[in-house]
Amino acid sequence: MKASSGALIQALVALSLAGLSVSKDFDFFYFVQQWPGSYCDTEQSCCYPTTGKPAPDFGVHGLWPNYNDGTYPSNCDSSNPFDQSKVSDLISKMQKDWPTLACPSGNGVTFWSHEWDKHGTCSEEVLDQHSYFSKALALKTQTNLLQALTTAGIEANGGSYSLSSIKSAIQSGVGYTPFIECNSDESGNSQLYQVYLCLDNSGSNLIECPVFPNGKCGSQIEFPSF
Fold first, then answer.
1. d(CA 112, CA 130)
2. Is the peptide bond before 104 cis (omega within 30 degrees of 0)?
3. Which residues does the annotation mark as catalytic?
Protein backbone atom coordinates (compact mmCIF):
# COMPACT_ATOMS: atom_id res chain seq x y z
CA MET A 1 0.00 0.00 0.00
CA LYS A 2 2.80 2.37 0.95
CA ALA A 3 4.61 1.72 -2.31
CA SER A 4 1.41 2.34 -4.25
CA SER A 5 0.74 5.56 -2.34
CA GLY A 6 4.31 6.67 -2.93
CA ALA A 7 4.03 5.98 -6.64
CA LEU A 8 0.75 7.89 -6.78
CA ILE A 9 2.30 10.88 -5.02
CA GLN A 10 5.25 10.84 -7.40
CA ALA A 11 2.90 10.72 -10.38
CA LEU A 12 0.88 13.64 -9.03
CA VAL A 13 4.02 15.65 -8.41
CA ALA A 14 5.23 14.93 -11.94
CA LEU A 15 1.90 16.05 -13.38
CA SER A 16 2.00 19.19 -11.25
CA LEU A 17 5.51 20.02 -12.41
CA ALA A 18 4.53 19.37 -16.01
CA GLY A 19 1.65 21.79 -15.66
CA LEU A 20 3.96 24.29 -14.01
CA SER A 21 6.45 24.10 -16.85
CA VAL A 22 3.70 24.74 -19.37
CA SER A 23 2.50 27.83 -17.51
CA LYS A 24 6.09 29.08 -17.33
CA ASP A 25 6.63 28.87 -21.09
CA PHE A 26 6.05 32.63 -21.10
CA ASP A 27 5.41 35.22 -18.42
CA PHE A 28 2.74 37.53 -19.81
CA PHE A 29 1.06 38.76 -23.00
CA TYR A 30 1.41 42.07 -24.75
CA PHE A 31 -1.95 43.11 -26.15
CA VAL A 32 -1.12 45.44 -29.03
CA GLN A 33 -3.50 47.80 -30.81
CA GLN A 34 -2.58 49.92 -33.83
CA TRP A 35 -3.87 53.29 -35.01
CA PRO A 36 -4.52 52.96 -38.78
CA GLY A 37 -4.02 56.67 -39.44
CA SER A 38 -0.37 56.45 -38.42
CA TYR A 39 0.25 53.25 -40.34
CA CYS A 40 -1.19 54.64 -43.56
CA ASP A 41 0.46 58.03 -43.11
CA THR A 42 3.96 56.56 -43.00
CA GLU A 43 3.73 53.27 -44.92
CA GLN A 44 4.06 53.37 -48.70
CA SER A 45 2.33 49.99 -48.79
CA CYS A 46 -0.92 50.81 -46.97
CA CYS A 47 -3.84 49.01 -48.59
CA TYR A 48 -7.42 48.65 -47.45
CA PRO A 49 -8.80 45.12 -47.13
CA THR A 50 -11.28 43.73 -49.62
CA THR A 51 -14.07 44.59 -47.18
CA GLY A 52 -13.26 48.29 -47.60
CA LYS A 53 -11.68 51.05 -45.54
CA PRO A 54 -11.74 50.15 -41.83
CA ALA A 55 -13.51 52.37 -39.35
CA PRO A 56 -11.39 55.14 -37.77
CA ASP A 57 -10.61 53.13 -34.66
CA PHE A 58 -7.71 51.24 -33.14
CA GLY A 59 -7.37 47.78 -34.62
CA VAL A 60 -5.96 44.69 -32.97
CA HIS A 61 -2.39 43.94 -34.01
CA GLY A 62 -1.81 40.92 -31.83
CA LEU A 63 -1.70 39.11 -28.52
CA TRP A 64 1.98 38.31 -27.99
CA PRO A 65 3.44 35.98 -25.36
CA ASN A 66 6.50 37.54 -23.76
CA TYR A 67 9.13 36.97 -21.09
CA ASN A 68 9.87 39.28 -18.18
CA ASP A 69 13.33 39.99 -19.63
CA GLY A 70 11.76 41.49 -22.75
CA THR A 71 12.44 38.56 -25.08
CA TYR A 72 9.70 36.43 -26.60
CA PRO A 73 9.08 32.98 -28.06
CA SER A 74 7.96 32.71 -31.67
CA ASN A 75 6.68 30.14 -34.16
CA CYS A 76 6.38 27.51 -31.46
CA ASP A 77 4.26 24.82 -33.14
CA SER A 78 4.46 24.38 -36.90
CA SER A 79 2.11 21.39 -36.62
CA ASN A 80 -0.80 23.67 -35.66
CA PRO A 81 -1.16 26.28 -38.42
CA PHE A 82 -3.97 28.82 -38.64
CA ASP A 83 -7.25 27.15 -39.59
CA GLN A 84 -9.96 29.58 -40.66
CA SER A 85 -12.69 27.03 -39.96
CA LYS A 86 -11.84 27.17 -36.25
CA VAL A 87 -12.75 30.86 -36.08
CA SER A 88 -15.55 30.94 -38.65
CA ASP A 89 -17.95 32.53 -36.15
CA LEU A 90 -15.45 35.34 -35.50
CA ILE A 91 -14.56 36.30 -39.07
CA SER A 92 -16.91 39.27 -39.46
CA LYS A 93 -15.76 40.74 -36.14
CA MET A 94 -12.11 40.09 -37.01
CA GLN A 95 -12.56 41.92 -40.31
CA LYS A 96 -13.97 44.88 -38.37
CA ASP A 97 -11.70 44.94 -35.29
CA TRP A 98 -8.55 43.16 -36.56
CA PRO A 99 -8.18 44.58 -40.08
CA THR A 100 -5.12 44.25 -42.25
CA LEU A 101 -3.54 47.28 -43.92
CA ALA A 102 -0.42 45.69 -45.43
CA CYS A 103 -0.34 45.21 -49.18
CA PRO A 104 -1.73 43.10 -50.63
CA SER A 105 -4.27 43.14 -47.81
CA GLY A 106 -6.87 40.67 -49.09
CA ASN A 107 -9.54 39.55 -46.65
CA GLY A 108 -7.31 39.44 -43.57
CA VAL A 109 -6.49 35.72 -43.52
CA THR A 110 -2.79 36.27 -44.29
CA PHE A 111 -2.45 38.71 -41.37
CA TRP A 112 -4.33 36.47 -38.92
CA SER A 113 -2.33 33.44 -40.05
CA HIS A 114 0.91 35.30 -39.35
CA GLU A 115 -0.24 36.34 -35.89
CA TRP A 116 -1.37 32.85 -34.94
CA ASP A 117 1.65 31.06 -36.40
CA LYS A 118 4.22 33.44 -34.92
CA HIS A 119 2.61 34.29 -31.58
CA GLY A 120 -0.51 32.27 -30.93
CA THR A 121 1.18 28.89 -31.21
CA CYS A 122 3.40 29.88 -28.29
CA SER A 123 0.38 30.16 -25.99
CA GLU A 124 -1.75 27.29 -27.26
CA GLU A 125 -1.57 25.44 -23.93
CA VAL A 126 -3.44 28.40 -22.44
CA LEU A 127 -5.49 29.69 -25.39
CA ASP A 128 -6.50 27.46 -28.27
CA GLN A 129 -6.93 29.05 -31.69
CA HIS A 130 -10.53 30.17 -31.15
CA SER A 131 -9.81 31.42 -27.63
CA TYR A 132 -6.74 33.34 -28.82
CA PHE A 133 -8.70 35.41 -31.32
CA SER A 134 -11.87 35.77 -29.24
CA LYS A 135 -9.83 36.94 -26.23
CA ALA A 136 -8.08 39.63 -28.29
CA LEU A 137 -11.38 40.83 -29.72
CA ALA A 138 -12.94 40.96 -26.25
CA LEU A 139 -9.94 42.93 -24.96
CA LYS A 140 -10.36 45.50 -27.71
CA THR A 141 -13.96 46.04 -26.66
CA GLN A 142 -13.01 46.10 -22.98
CA THR A 143 -10.19 48.63 -23.33
CA ASN A 144 -11.91 50.91 -25.89
CA LEU A 145 -8.85 53.08 -26.43
CA LEU A 146 -10.47 55.58 -28.77
CA GLN A 147 -13.22 56.31 -26.24
CA ALA A 148 -10.63 56.76 -23.49
CA LEU A 149 -8.76 59.29 -25.58
CA THR A 150 -11.76 61.23 -26.89
CA THR A 151 -13.22 61.44 -23.38
CA ALA A 152 -10.01 63.23 -22.40
CA GLY A 153 -10.34 65.62 -25.35
CA ILE A 154 -7.70 63.86 -27.46
CA GLU A 155 -9.07 63.65 -30.99
CA ALA A 156 -7.73 61.95 -34.12
CA ASN A 157 -7.69 65.17 -36.12
CA GLY A 158 -4.01 65.66 -36.86
CA GLY A 159 -3.45 67.67 -33.70
CA SER A 160 -0.51 67.21 -31.33
CA TYR A 161 -0.86 66.16 -27.72
CA SER A 162 1.61 65.55 -24.95
CA LEU A 163 2.81 62.00 -24.45
CA SER A 164 1.91 62.29 -20.77
CA SER A 165 -1.68 63.29 -21.55
CA ILE A 166 -2.14 60.35 -23.91
CA LYS A 167 -0.77 57.87 -21.37
CA SER A 168 -2.85 59.42 -18.60
CA ALA A 169 -6.05 59.27 -20.67
CA ILE A 170 -5.56 55.59 -21.48
CA GLN A 171 -4.59 54.73 -17.90
CA SER A 172 -7.70 56.51 -16.61
CA GLY A 173 -9.93 54.73 -19.11
CA VAL A 174 -8.43 51.25 -18.87
CA GLY A 175 -6.98 51.17 -15.36
CA TYR A 176 -3.46 50.13 -16.38
CA THR A 177 -0.34 51.91 -17.60
CA PRO A 178 0.11 51.70 -21.37
CA PHE A 179 3.27 51.72 -23.43
CA ILE A 180 2.99 54.08 -26.39
CA GLU A 181 4.88 53.24 -29.57
CA CYS A 182 5.44 56.06 -32.05
CA ASN A 183 6.56 56.32 -35.63
CA SER A 184 7.53 59.37 -37.66
CA ASP A 185 5.87 60.86 -40.71
CA GLU A 186 7.78 62.28 -43.68
CA SER A 187 8.24 65.57 -41.81
CA GLY A 188 9.71 63.81 -38.79
CA ASN A 189 6.67 64.34 -36.58
CA SER A 190 6.25 61.75 -33.83
CA GLN A 191 2.90 60.00 -34.27
CA LEU A 192 0.75 57.81 -32.04
CA TYR A 193 1.18 54.41 -33.66
CA GLN A 194 0.60 51.48 -31.28
CA VAL A 195 -0.57 51.00 -27.71
CA TYR A 196 0.64 48.08 -25.59
CA LEU A 197 -1.20 46.75 -22.56
CA CYS A 198 -0.40 43.55 -20.66
CA LEU A 199 -2.29 40.40 -19.77
CA ASP A 200 -1.31 37.68 -17.30
CA ASN A 201 -0.01 34.38 -18.65
CA SER A 202 -3.30 32.62 -18.01
CA GLY A 203 -4.89 34.91 -20.57
CA SER A 204 -7.43 36.04 -17.98
CA ASN A 205 -6.65 39.47 -16.58
CA LEU A 206 -5.05 42.75 -17.54
CA ILE A 207 -2.00 43.53 -15.41
CA GLU A 208 0.65 46.21 -15.09
CA CYS A 209 3.36 45.41 -17.64
CA PRO A 210 6.43 43.72 -16.11
CA VAL A 211 8.58 45.30 -18.81
CA PHE A 212 8.00 47.68 -21.70
CA PRO A 213 9.35 47.28 -25.25
CA ASN A 214 12.24 49.41 -26.43
CA GLY A 215 11.24 52.61 -28.12
CA LYS A 216 10.86 56.30 -27.53
CA CYS A 217 8.33 58.97 -28.44
CA GLY A 218 8.72 62.71 -28.55
CA SER A 219 7.17 64.79 -25.78
CA GLN A 220 4.49 65.91 -28.26
CA ILE A 221 2.69 63.34 -30.39
CA GLU A 222 0.53 63.82 -33.44
CA PHE A 223 -2.74 61.87 -33.55
CA PRO A 224 -3.39 61.71 -37.32
CA SER A 225 -6.83 61.36 -38.81
CA PHE A 226 -7.89 58.29 -40.75
1. 12
2. yes
3. 61, 115, 119
